[in-house]
Amino acid sequence: MQAKHLVVLAGVFAFWMARPVAADQTPDSFSIPAGGKNEPATLDAMLFKPQGQGPFPAIVAMHGCSGLWSSKKATELSPRHADWGQRLAALGYVVIFPDSYGSRGLGPQCKNGDRQVEPYRERVEDANAARRYLQTLPYVNSGAIALLGWSNGGSSVLYTVRPKDRPQAETPDFRAAVAFYPGCTAPAQKGDWATRVPLLIVMGDADDWTPATPCKTLAVANPDSVKLILYPGAYHDFDNEAQKLHELYGLAFTANKDGVAHAGLNPAARAAALKDVPDFLAVLKQ
Question: Which of 10, 92, 149, 200 could cross-link to 62 by cystine, CB 3.0-4.6 Å?
Fold first, then answer.
């Protein structure tokens, strides 16, 4: 009987974690100073702010190769970004989404093999520009900022947190980082990748777009700084409640190099990530 009650309680908890949040955190749209020699002068960005005065911990959130915006309405955040922005703001985090593509007049890049904006180059600058902007805001705790990204944005996280990209001494560094299903192949092949901040990688073990095996290599090589969580049976975009599992074609980079991969919601993996990611980010509140 006791075991039965535990199962019921676990189901209730999973439902609570996966339920939609109230859309009472409306993001602000604005421009921030960009960085780098070949950058645009400004980056477009969206920012979620919790209720209250702060100072709050904050998160720089990097979109994937599909871009920041909804495919149905170009002036709205994609459902995944809006969902996470609202959820994290409800937990007391300021969340900023810099637009790496639209700011440069570009659309989605998933099918483009020759990209003008790369995770190891422009997107590192974008992440740091967003961090520096957050550190100017009076309601942000400048020493409690994390970096988070999805897919191509997750790859951007991997490059941004390398020791060689440590920011100048006058600005506090990121405190932690989270990468959703990043492309780990190139960093793993180089063999010298490392992170200067604690990093959580979350991905599905069935991902055939950005495979899990190279990320395992990074985690094994960096056991004290990288935590890898693999969700059974989950594919790319497992946390996107608005996207049913489907097959994609013509992608520039996939595990089998055939341009074909699966992407879409896995309810169990999503529910787990909605707990695992905030648990990891709680270090910002310590």
Answer: 149
Mean pLDDT of 195-208: 98
Residue 76, judged by CB atoms within 10 A of its CB (0-12, 13-18, 19+), counts as middle
What is the distance between the alpha carbons of residues 157 and 61, in angstroms, rounded to a whole number? Answer: 9
Of the pLDDT bands very low, low, confident and very high (cuts 50, 70, 90), residue 277 is: very high
Domain count, the chain: 1
- One DSSP character per residue, 249-267 reads -S-SS-TTSSS-EEE---H
Return the structure tokens found at 228: 């890898």
Give percent of the chain above pLDDT 90: 78
Please state the pTM of the whole predicted model. Answer: 0.90
- Distance between CA atoms of 128 and 162, rounded to whole angstroms? 13
Q: Which residue range is the domain that position 239 belongs to?
A: 2-285
What is the arithmetic mean of pLDDT over 85-90? 97
In this structure, the number of other CB atoms found within 10 A of the CB of residue 113 comes to: 9
Provide the mean pLDDT of the chain: 89
For the CA atoms of 80, 71, 112, 157, what is the dihedral angle to 10 degrees? -20
CATH of the domain at 96: 3.40.50.1820
Q: What is the pLDDT of residue 14?
A: 44
**SS3 of residue 227 by DSSP:** strand
Tokens 């890898």 map to which residue? Answer: 228
Which H helix or E strand runs over 85? helix 79-90
H, E, C per residue of 160-206: HCCHHHCCCCCCCCCCEEEEECCCCHHHHHHCCCCCCCCEEEEEECC
Contacts of 46 (CB under 8 A, 6+ apart): 27, 28, 29, 68, 77, 81, 85, 96, 97, 99
